[in-house]
Amino acid sequence: MSEFTNFEPMFQETYKLILDRIKSNQIYIMDEGPWRERLCWIKLMVNILAAMSHTAGVIERIAQGADLVQLSTDLSAVLILWQASLLYIQLCLNRKLLKKFIIHMGTKWRPDDQLRPHMIAVKHEYVLTFFRRIKVFYKAVTTYVILYLLTPFTYIAVKRFILKDGVALVTPFYIKMPFKFDDNFLLYSLVTFADSKILLDVGYLVCFDLLFMNAAMNHLRLMFVMLQDDLRHVHEEDVKQAEKTLKKLIPLHQDLLKLMTELSNAFGAVFFIHLAFFSGTMCFFGFAARIHCSPESIKNLFAGNIILVCIYTCCYYGQNLTDASIDIAQAAYESQWHLKSQEYKKCILFIILRSQKAQYIKSTSFTDVSLETFTKILNVTWSFLSLITKVYEA
Fold it and tell me: Which residues of 134-148 are buried (b: 16+ CB within 10 A; e: fewer)?
């Protein structure tokens, strides 16, 4: 991450934490190299093989007569594994776009010596609060996934070796392997730990690619807030100096709008993949909890809620970024332009006209990253859940 060395430490640490989690999947965004690229595609093949094994397990259980309630947990795991495989391909293909975006935003990042004292306090609160939330979320996800995956193994080990009781060797999610492993504890342990490691990495990938997007939108919004502050205080300078300052702010505004476009290009397909799988995953988790309210289904519902929180925060930060870009017009209008020169008024008018049209982070040409999109996807999810429930009850 040599490119990070020239950026402010406060800017660096958020992305280092996120990229380290994504790096556990052998996806190196800032660190390039031919051997790392080969590791990336090898890891992708491992994930696809895991998805195929879990899919084969679901097909085998269907052949054995398992109903939808019994399959809901395994179906959710299959959907997440295939989702992670698509995300993996997209992130690998978009590494250069992601790296270009981070470096571009880092070069436009405003150090403390370029800000007014009150904006320095706002900046530190924005960045440090978000960083603390990511750290808490990372610890919570890691703890939850490890407990989810290894609690059954611990229970089986205690029953078998301490209580000397017979117990079936089952994995947290049903998996079909080309060899028999449920009659040999050593093989069972190897399969369980290998599958758990893959699922832990998948959990990091599914959560932290959205957190990556969240961090980018949160920081970009902060840069718009800094620009708003500059516009509100530019009138305090004398006429000629105010014109010079304003002419410097116009290209900065253009750069921020360009960064929004780059962010859409880098993350749009990633967000779309999440939306495409979100309804199915939440439906199966919610269906199991609604029809068969057992501790196992409640535990799965918590997993669904983690995905729900990631999608919601992404839409929330996307909406905030759009609102911040629109508020530039209001900040420019409040700069007492009526007391300035004609040239100053033209510059202000140019900024206001450019800011009046809402700029959204685009997932696709017809889908914005906004709270409205989150509302729509929840409606679709609820419709699917109601349909599945009615079909099952009938």
Answer: beebbeebeeebeeb
Angle between helix axes 185-233 and 295-333 (nearest 10 degrees) is: 20
Tokens standing for 172? 């947290």
**What confidence tens digit (pLDDT) does each residue in 60-86 have?**
988 988 877 777 778 888 888 999 999
Report phi then psi at 362, rounded to 5: -95, 130
Answer yes or no: are the C-beta atoms of 111 and 8 closer than 8 Å: yes
- Look at residues 96, 98, 127 and name the one whose alpha carbon lies nearest to residue 110: 127
The C-alpha atoms of residue 203 and residue 47 are separated, in whole angstroms, by 12
- Tokens 């902060």 sit at which residue? 222
* Helices and strands in the chain: count of H runs, count of E runs: 10, 2
What's the confidence (pLDDT) of residue 128? Answer: 92
Give the burial class of 252: count Cβ atoms within 10 A of its Cβ; 0-12 exposed, 13-18 middle, 19 or more buried: middle
Give one DSSP letter per residue of 158-212, joined into a string. Answer: IIIIIS--------SS----SS--TT-HHHHHHHHHHHHHHHHHHHHHHHHHHHH
The H-assigned helical ranges of 8-116 are 9-23, 34-63, 68-93, 95-108
* pLDDT score for 297: 63
Angle between helices 185-233 and 9-23 (to 10 degrees): 150
For 100-109, what is each residue's pLDDT tens digit? 999 999 889 9
Domain residues of the chain, as ranges?
2-393
Q: CB of 219 within 8 A of CB of 11?
A: yes
Question: What is the helix (H) or strand (E) element at residue 359, kind and residue range?
Answer: none
Note the pLDDT of residue 338: 78
Indicate the pTM of the whole model: 0.89
